[in-house]
Structure formats: C-alpha cells, structure tokens
Design brief:
355 residues; alpha+beta; Immunoglobulin-like; five-stranded mixed beta sheet; 10 helices; 10 strands
C-alpha cells in the first residue's frame, strides 16, 4: 500500500511539473503564433476524454465505497432515546449531499467534454439569465432552509429537558488534563456547589466541592460512570484547565466543557452494556478488533495490555486538549436500576471520603 501511494504521489508531481513547463512555454515572448496556441483540437479532445474518464473513476470509487464501507455500522447502534432522530437527520443530510454531488459532478464533466474547444467553434455567451439564476438560487435556499429547520427541531427536542416532569438523575462530568471524574448528586439528587479554587488535594477534595454545602455531603465522586437504563440523565459539565469536549458517540451526545462555566446535556440511555454486546454489528466489530490484535500479539503482550477487547461505552474528549488527549476517556456502564443501586451502595459519599 505504501509503495502504491508513493507511486501515485510521484505521478502527480510529474504531471504538475509537466503542466508548469507548458505554462512557462506559453509565457515566453518572441515565439511563433503556432507555438503560442494554448491548445490544439487534439489536446482539447484528449482533455475531454480525460474529464469523462475521471467522472467514471469517481463514480466507481463511490460505488465501491458503498459496497465495502457503506453499511455505516455506527448508524445501527444508537443507545439513547434521541439517537434515532439524530441518525435520521444525518441520513437525510447525506442523501441530499450525495444527490447534489452526483448531479453537479456529472454536469461539470459532461459539459467539459461536450463543449470542449474546437477550431472554428465559437462559444455561446450569456451576459445573464435571470431564470437560471433564480432556479439555482431558490432551490438551494429551500433545501438548506428545510435541513436547518429540521435540525433546529431535532436539537430543541434533545436539549429541552423538563427537570420537574422528567425527574432526571443529575451527574457532573468533570474534565481535566487528562482524565474524567463523575459526581453524582446522591440521595437528594442535588449537586453541591463547587469551584476550582476550593480544590484541596490534601483532603481528597479533588473537584473543589464546597465542604460546607449540605447538598454536597452525599455527593459521590467516581472514575467509572454507571447509568441506569431508561432513566433520564442530566449532565452538568465543568473543566478544570482548558477547553474539553464530553463526547459519548453511542449516545449521540457531545457538549463542550468550558473553564469557568457549567454546560449541560441530557439523554436517556436505552440499551444496556450487556445488550449492546449482543448487537450483531457490534459483535462483528469486536471480532475484527480482536483479529487485528492477534496479529500484533507479541507487541501488545510486551506492553502489558490485555489482548482481548470487549465492548464498553466510553466517554471521550473530542477537543485536542494536550499531548495525552488521545488517552482521555472514561468507561460507561449502562445497567438495570437494581444493578445501579447495588453499585451505588458500595460507593463512598463525599463527606466520608474527606481526609
């Protein structure tokens, strides 16, 4: 594959040099009229055929991509209540883009071939055409306005969380270079006040939670996020240092974590971790990953990593926040309410964790 890429690059460089030489020749003064001709009929005919050839090439590549890469497995494993709506918006947008790209590329290459330069042929020139300009202005406006309005309705459905009616579980996601912490509101489901100026590592107050706040006493701070299935979740997000982005791809959730302010995002998980591991698309993906790891068995074992991959939901950082950005992730486990309650009963409250 590397050899092929090198060959393609060398070929393109050679073509670029050839074209630059031709441009240099045309720019010379004192040449005969014949030598100053930009292109002959033969050149134009060849360029026309090349345009059609390139049109066929991009269509073949597109078809092959659909055959080998077009199953879009990520679109089949949405694990949140709002996920299918967001996926539907993505599919519609991609379909519109694909249709427009197909039509415009065909017209571009076909007209370049059909109306290529020929001796004695004179191009028809339009100073303006109000009908054409209206068509190619109004149609994109209508299509784009439709996509934008649909997107706004989808976004509003996701972001409009009724705290009183939905009674979401409140969880804080705390970002810092280069890890995540999660803080649950405890039995009262209310997060205690917090500020980075209150961080006291010596007392194990690593999130700057206000120790005098009564609502903070039953808060629970963890490094592994557990969520009960089919329970609305409201995330409050903070950053200790730089701009981070809380990204949970399978839940179709992403929100920036901004230093000095609190942002929020809510969703309802609908598929447990155990159920997602039984998803056929996910099982195929896991098998492919383990097959690749098997090829690098010796290298992985030397690094001390576990060779076998098992699917887990992940919280990732989707902003390049520093040199270890790639390693900033936290495991998410979606489970039944009973399993969640049992796990929560094992956790220490903030008051009990202080030194």
């Amino acid at each position: 594959m590397t050899t092929l890429l090198i060959f393609v690059i060398v070929l393109f460089v050679a073509i670029a040099i050839w074209q630059m030489v031709k441009i240099f020749d045309l720019a010379q003064v004192g040449k005969s009229e014949g030598n100053n001709q930009v292109a002959t009929d033969k050149d134009n005919k060849m360029n026309g055929y090349l345009m059609i050839g390139f049109l066929i090439f991009i269509y073949v590549i597109t078809i092959l991509c659909f055959i080998y890469l077009g199953d879009l497995p990520l679109m089949s494993n949405s694990a949140s209540e709002h996920g299918p709506g967001l996926d539907n918006l993505m599919i519609i947008t991609m379909a519109v883009i694909f249709f427009v790209q197909t039509v415009t590329q065909f017209l571009l290459h076909y007209f370049a071939y059909k109306y290529r330069g020929e001796k004695g042929k004179k191009a028809l020139f339009y100073a303006d055409n109000n009908t054409l300009e209206a068509i190619w202005t109004i149609i994109p406006v209508i299509v784009l306005a439709g996509l934008i309005i649909y997107g706004l309705f989808t976004w509003n459905d996701i972001m409009n969380i009724d705290v009183e009616e939905d009674d979401p579980m409140v969880i804080e996601l705390y970002a810092q270079q280069f890890n995540w912490k999660a803080r649950y509101g405890g039995e009262d489901n209310v997060l205690g006040q917090a500020n980075v100026r209150l961080i006291d590592v010596g007392r194990a107050n690593i999130l700057g939670v206000a120790e005098s706040d009564p609502n903070a006493q039953d808060d629970v701070i963890v490094t592994e996020l557990h969520l009960p299935v089919n329970r609305p979740i409201l995330f409050k997000m903070r950053s200790q240092d730089v701009l981070h982005s809380a990204y949970m791809p399978h839940f179709r959730a992403q929100m920036n974590c901004v230093p000095g302010m609190v942002t929020q995002f809510g969703f309802t998980p609908t598929v447990t971790t155990k159920e997602m591991r039984l998803n056929p698309d996910m099982q195929e993906k896991v098998q492919n990953i383990n097959a690749l790891r098997a090829e690098r068995r010796a290298e992985i074992e030397e690094s001390g990593q576990d060779l076998t991959y098992e699917f887990d939901y992940l919280l990732l950082c989707n902003k390049i926040c520093g040199e270890s950005h790639y390693n900033m992730q936290m495991k998410i486990i979606v489970e039944t309410q009973e399993e969640f309650d049992a796990w929560m009963a094992e956790q220490k409250t903030f008051a009990n964790s202080l030194n």
